[in-house]
């Protein structure tokens, strides 16, 4: 007949007190000796479900199980408890439990898997952004470098740079002394980083085309204005009709008007540099 012994009466074979509350003793009717029937721990380890702790290491239940015993942590194939830092709680025969485990433990941080660690798929966060900006800058000293022969090529090259920076080039326009770029701001770049990434390679590109472009430079400053989706069509039309717009209006007049319309203060001594 099998029976549970009171906690203070359990003994190992050599007579030492046994503190493991999960050990079941088999009492032989014909003998007063208590017999503990344990399974081999190595064999038991191979049959246990694997757990992965928070640091990625595999954890096994090292408890020596008695014949027919039911552990709190493994009932019908469920997980056994792990601590809050991801380590498996180990019960040892003949020793006091190093951690107290309850079946209602709130610190269950392990994941039950039947495959190697590499098969775990985690959900990746997603960051979304769509900020439309209207960028304007001129050539140095507003010199008319961009004549009708080179202007389409420059505009196409500027659009390509925007796409290479992970922006969406919506429209590029302008006349001989300045450009308008309507684009989205890349999610991983600041506004200043993007404009620097547009100016430098485009200036280098045009200088390499012909000897006569070796003196080409963009102005050091720029203007950038946010565009709401509701006004996008109007701004697209504005950039598209730049040649017609500048038949009666200079770049400086246009730029001052845009700054005032957006409520931006500026200093005439430095704004054209």
Question: Helices and strands in order, then pairings?
Answer:
Blueprint: E1 26-27, E2 34-35, H1 41-47, E3 50-52, E4 58-59, E5 111-113, E6 132-138, H2 151-164, E7 169-175, E8 178-184, H3 191-207, E9 223-227, H4 232-240, H5 242-245, H6 251-261
Antiparallel strand pairs: 1-2, 3-4, 3-5, 6-8, 6-9, 7-8
The strand count comes to: 9
CATH class type of the largest domain: Alpha Beta
Overall radius of gyration:
38 Å
**What is the CATH topology assignment of the largest domain?**
Alpha-Beta Plaits
Count of helix runs: 6
* Backbone shape: elongated
CATH superfamily of the largest domain: Transposase IS200-like
Q: What is the string of helix and strand elements?
A: EEHEEEEHEEHEHHH
Give the proportion of residues in helices: 10-25%
What is the correct CATH architecture of the largest domain? 2-Layer Sandwich
Q: Largest sheet, described in full?
A: 4 strands, antiparallel
Question: What is the spatial order of strands in the main beta sheet?
Answer: 7-8-6-9
For the record, the count of structural domains works out to 2
Mean of pLDDT: 73
Give the helix/strand class. alpha+beta
Distance N to C terminus:
99 Å
- Amount of beta strand: 5-15%
Spans where pLDDT lies below 50 across 5 or more residues: 1-8, 19-39, 48-53, 58-95, 97-113
């Amino acid at each position: 007949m099998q029976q549970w012994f009171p906690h203070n009466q359990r003994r190992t074979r050599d007579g030492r007190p046994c503190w493991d509350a999960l050990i079941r003793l088999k009492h032989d009717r014909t003998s007063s000796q208590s017999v503990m029937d344990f399974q081999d721990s190595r064999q038991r380890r191979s049959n246990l479900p694997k757990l992965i702790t928070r640091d990625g290491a595999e954890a096994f239940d090292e408890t020596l199980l008695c014949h027919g015993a039911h552990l709190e942590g493994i009932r019908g194939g469920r997980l056994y408890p792990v601590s809050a830092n991801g380590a498996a709680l180990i019960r040892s025969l003949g020793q006091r439990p190093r951690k107290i485990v309850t079946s209602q433990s709130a610190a269950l941080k392990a994941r039950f898997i039947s495959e190697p660690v590499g098969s775990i798929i985690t959900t990746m966060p997603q960051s979304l952004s769509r900020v439309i900006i209207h960028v304007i800058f001129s050539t140095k000293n507003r010199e008319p470098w961009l004549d009708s022969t080179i202007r389409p090529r420059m505009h196409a090259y500027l659009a390509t740079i925007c796409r290479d920076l992970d922006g969406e080039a919506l429209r590029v326009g302008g006349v001989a002394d300045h450009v308008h770029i309507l684009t989205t701001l890349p999610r991983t770049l600041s506004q200043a980083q993007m404009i620097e990434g547009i100016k430098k390679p485009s200036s280098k590109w045009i200088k390499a085309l012909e000897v006569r472009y070796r003196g080409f430079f963009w102005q050091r400053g720029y203007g950038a204005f946010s565009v709401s989706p509701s006004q996008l069509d109007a701004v697209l039309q504005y950039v598209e009709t730049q040649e017609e717009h500048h038949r009666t209006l200079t770049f400086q007049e246009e730029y001052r008007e845009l700054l005032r319309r957006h409520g931006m203060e500026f200093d005439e001594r430095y704004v054209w540099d």
